[in-house]
TrEMBL record, chain A:
Subcellular location: Cell membrane
Cofactor note: Binds 2 [4Fe-4S] clusters per subunit.
Annotated protein name in UniProt: NADH-quinone oxidoreductase subunit I
Gene: nuoI
Role played: NDH-1 shuttles electrons from NADH, via FMN and iron-sulfur (Fe-S) centers, to quinones in the respiratory chain. The immediate electron acceptor for the enzyme in this species is believed to be ubiquinone. Couples the redox reaction to proton translocation (for every two electrons transferred, four hydrogen ions are translocated across the cytoplasmic membrane), and thus conserves the redox energy in a proton gradient.
Species of the source: Baia soyae
GO cellular component: plasma membrane
Top-level taxonomic group: Bacteria
The protein's Enzyme Commission number: 7.1.1.-
Subunit structure and binding partners: NDH-1 is composed of 14 different subunits. Subunits NuoA, H, J, K, L, M, N constitute the membrane sector of the complex.
GO biological process, one term: aerobic respiration
TrEMBL record, chain B:
Class of this enzyme: translocase
Keywords: Cell membrane, Membrane, NAD, Quinone, Translocase, Transport
Entry's EC annotation: 7.1.1.-
Function: NDH-1 shuttles electrons from NADH, via FMN and iron-sulfur (Fe-S) centers, to quinones in the respiratory chain. The immediate electron acceptor for the enzyme in this species is believed to be a menaquinone. Couples the redox reaction to proton translocation (for every two electrons transferred, four hydrogen ions are translocated across the cytoplasmic membrane), and thus conserves the redox energy in a proton gradient.
GO-annotated molecular function: NAD binding; NADH dehydrogenase (quinone) (non-electrogenic) activity; quinone binding
Protein name (record): NADH-quinone oxidoreductase subunit D
SUBUNIT field: NDH-1 is composed of 14 different subunits. Subunits NuoB, C, D, E, F, and G constitute the peripheral sector of the complex.
SUPFAM superfamilies, per database record: HydB/Nqo4-like (SSF56762)
Entry's family note: Belongs to the complex I 49 kDa subunit family.
Domain NADH-quinone oxidoreductase subunit D: 120-290, 291-364
TrEMBL record, chain C:
Record's subcellular location: Cell membrane; Membrane
Organism, scientific name: Baia soyae
Bilayer topology annotation: Multi-pass membrane protein
GO cellular component, one term: plasma membrane
Lineage per the UniProt record: Bacteria, Bacillati, Bacillota, Bacilli, Bacillales
Name of this chain's protein: NADH-quinone oxidoreductase subunit H
Automatic annotation (TrEMBL), chain D:
Basic and acidic residues: bias regions: 1-10, 99-110
Segments of this protein annotated with the region Disordered: 1-110
InterPro entries membership: NADH_quin_OxRdtase_su_C/D-like, NADH_UbQ_OxRdtase_30kDa_su, NADH_UbQ_OxRdtase_CS
EC class of the enzyme, as a word: translocase
Keywords: NAD, Quinone, Translocase, Transport
Purpose of the protein: NDH-1 shuttles electrons from NADH, via FMN and iron-sulfur (Fe-S) centers, to quinones in the respiratory chain.
Reaction catalysis annotation: a quinone + NADH + 5 H(+)(in) = a quinol + NAD(+) + 4 H(+)(out)
Upper lineage: Bacteria, Bacillati, Bacillota, Bacilli, Bacillales
Entries under PROSITE patterns matching the protein: COMPLEX1_30K
Protein name as it appears in the record: NADH-quinone oxidoreductase
Amino acid sequence: MFGLLKGLGVTLKNMTKPKVTYNYPAEPIPVPDRFRGIQHFDAEKCIVCNQCALVCPTDCITLTGKRNPDPEKKGKVIEIYDINFEICILCDLCTEVCPTEAIVMTNNFELATYSRDDLFKNMQWLHDNNQNIRQENMSSKPPGAAGGAK
Amino acid sequence: MLRTEEMLLNMGPQHPSTHGVLRLVIKIDGEIIREVDPVVGYLHRGTEKLAEDLTYTQIIPYTDRLDYVSAMTNNYAVVHATEKLMGLEVPERAEYLRMITMELNRVASHLVWVGTYLLDLGAMSPFLYCFQDRETILNLFNELCGARLTYNYMRVGGVKWDAPEGWLQKVEEFVLYMQKELATYHDLISGNDIFLQRTRGIGIYTKEQALSYALSGSNLRVTGVPWDLRQHQSYSLYHQFQFEIPTGETGDVLDKYHLRMQEIEESLKIVKQVLDVIKEGPIMGKVPKVLRVPEGEVYTGVESPRGELGCHIVSNGKNKPWRLKFRRPSFYNLQILPELLKGENISNLVAILGGIDIILGEVDG
Amino acid sequence: MDLFFYLGPIILMLLLLGFVTYAILFERKVIGWIQNRPGPNQVGPWGLFQTIADVAKLLLKEDIVPGKADRALFKLAPIIAFVPAFAILAVIPFTESWQFGDFAVGLLYYIAISSITIIGILTGAWASNNKYSLLGGMRSAAQMISYEIPLVLSVVGIVMTTGSLDLNDIVLAQKKVWFIVPQFLAFLIFLIASLAELNRTPFDLPEAESELVAGYHVEYTGFRFAFFMLAEYVYVFAMASLTTCLFLGGWLPLFGLTMIPGILWFLLKFSLVVFSLFWIRATMPRLRVDQLMQFAWKVLLPLSLLNIFLTAIFKEIPVLSSFY
Amino acid sequence: MSDQEKELTQETKATNIMGEEAVKNEEASEEQGVQTLSNTTSQQMNAEAVKLANEEQGIKSSPNTPPKQESRENAVTKPQAASVPPKKPAATPRPAAKKPAEEKPLEPSRKQPWLDKFVVKLKELEGSEHLEDAFINRANNDLPTLVVKSEWWRTLALHLRNHPDCQFHYVQNFSSVDYETHLEVVVHLFSFPHKERLGVLVKVDRAEAKVDSVADIWDAANWNEREAYDLMGIIFEGHPDLRRIMLTDQWIGHPLRKDYVPYDEGV
């Protein structure tokens, strides 16, 4: 019997505590810098090394490259770069292997759409997704280096 | 004499208290259960088959989705087995970070259990209180590795991220807070007569049964077997730290509750000790660029919040496992359910099923 | 008076609907606060229109009658459940003058009529042709019938003291001291039994969602479902009113603060009772069905008999008898 | 090489993950990028890109072969011919013959004496000619491991469970492996009274995958045998309720077999 009253006391005490919920759609949820959100892709930096597509556990990255239009430069430039967010699990492996940080994570996470087709994002879309880009991308780099752990 | 009839009741796969997509085909006589046949597999994703086509690094995000309540331990299970087979050395700081995250994850997992269990019994507020405290842990993980549930944090040879600035302090604050907060839980739950009535004396099995069904974790310890892989098949750096293995006396669900609350305490103790000794240092060992695991076979078990989470790897020397098998503790623990439920009231069903603490993602692999 | 005779029930009905609307909101708000969250706050300012939106949704929903159900009974059941709930409100004295049917056996009428609802619930449970609802219906029949006995026996003490079954007389008899003081045991029994009668946590076994999904109304949708909900909340209203009248002195003021009108006093006490119902709901887990029955027959029934016995004795002791 | 590029290369080296392949792949996909220009859908192009890149890395194009049984044992056993019982099949080559360059005399495993004694005792058991091998799995915390033929499995299991010297009451892991030549049921046991671990590899014929059930010996084996039947297609004779457990009852094939092809009604 005493235990019941103790429990009632706990719940009553909690009534006065501050609320812990977020007013989410009205106010954005604060996320830490390392948050793994939708990728931002920078075509300029991409060297078409294919590593992101290879490392992707769900094979959601599609990419092709072409010869650099400038004949004096070696290497290739990216032509098509798509991510299928129907199956992307935002595991961060693609940004981890990218040697040039052409693909980086952002803190955006709102992907809900009314159509599955909308989840197929192309290079342009990924490039325009340039808000809240993650600052710290490779913690395996020595501290202090660009993009390395702080 | 009234004519009575046995009824076949399908509980699940969509039911509020089967904790996911478990289906129980129950034969009931009134409200008394005569027979139970658990039907699993609704969440089977073929992780083991998928893993055969994935490199060792790629498997790690898949393990997050097995036991989604304590993904850190899953990460560790596969990483640990791989490291064992490769004979890798892992830097100290990485192991400490792994231990902090695994133990915090155990706390979070047990909090989910306490909350959902009380929800099964019909009390709503403890559930939300538990989730508030769990939220703190998830936020800490979010800061550390950028995700709240699917961490993908550990790598073969180390961890992906070093602790960000001030993170360890936050963990320490949380540990101190949580150690105090547990008293509130005891005030709210442990003394509640209705809760005691509901849980006392139900779901009891003997030590022999538990061993034969290969139960593990708190489900085994509750019968009085002090079996904890963290101490008895020590992995990581657990041998450096002091902690108790709580065991049960009567083996009923009430005992399991107390046991898991004590395990929270012990986990917090471990985290506290790790925080005292953790030093700066590298977080990745010397790992070849392409992980080629030497030919061989290895089975290692780690203590997940639900029991012995094992990983059996057969390698053919390539960068992908030839065969990868998870010993999923929930799958083993769930097997004993039909035995426990015979002759019980249907209201005890949720109390006993909840007590086993299963995660369907893990049961179905 | 004639106009009031016809319009009164309609006004009461509207008031009642208003109460139910805001009782549900209040319940969700209270439980929300207890759980450190704001509760419904999206529809309208402070979430005031939340329940209205919910009701509108229920009314607009497709009315589904399961194929294997007994159609006639399935449709009849919500009505059987709701009508008695509304009928009992006639005898509740809100203030000295605000009462619809003032007759000498008000308390008896209340208890007699309220037990009809169980037939509606049982009918609905059986007619749904669903195993969960059948189990829920059987549970609720067993539970409500069992708990009616301690409920009735607990108020016998009050009836003995006042010598009347008229709720007006009972309220007026509490001018000196509320019955909660001399009849504290009875109050506890009454509170527990009324919780069980209302099918509210910790006695919400008929609709225990973690076991029986939704119990007796698992197959009901839309408006029919709304009727069951309505009946449930009208009973909350009625039971809280009855508790106020029986134990908390009805509309009578406290500390002689007579400038505050009686209806406000009534509402204040009434809200306190309603709040504690919600508060208990937010804290307690659910009892098990066999423990529930044992509790009724082995604990509450003897206690209420003891209460009658004690009341009878105290009435004969010279000093104490002034309270009785 | 510009400064930026230099920095890039350094960064690449600093990362642990496939840094050098990046450069190789770059060249590989250069040709391929031209090839696929005319292709219509990006998926096709990607498929080719990945395939080419994989070939470069030698991941997918090289035939994935099962781990060799001998080498597995060799890798983990030490040369212990003297202590291993004479009935051990002579077919198992010694590591010395296989990899002479790497051969160096390993310390005898701390578990070896225990295993030797254990095997001697097992020899007294009826049907012990089915014991094919006994070795120490060094990588796995010196796990003593037995290799037996499927005929003997039930007898052995009863012995392991009940004999006072064994008392392996606890099934730590119950797994199965497809080696393409044969199937294997892998059981890891633990004995609480003796605090010993033991691995048992039961060789099962692949075409006619049948082995006696041990569900009545260890309750834990029940669902695990169902799982092995479901996914690996091993039939456990005498199992009380051998149904599929993970997949639907109508499922065709056993997915964890290496030659499994998903049955598609549309094809």
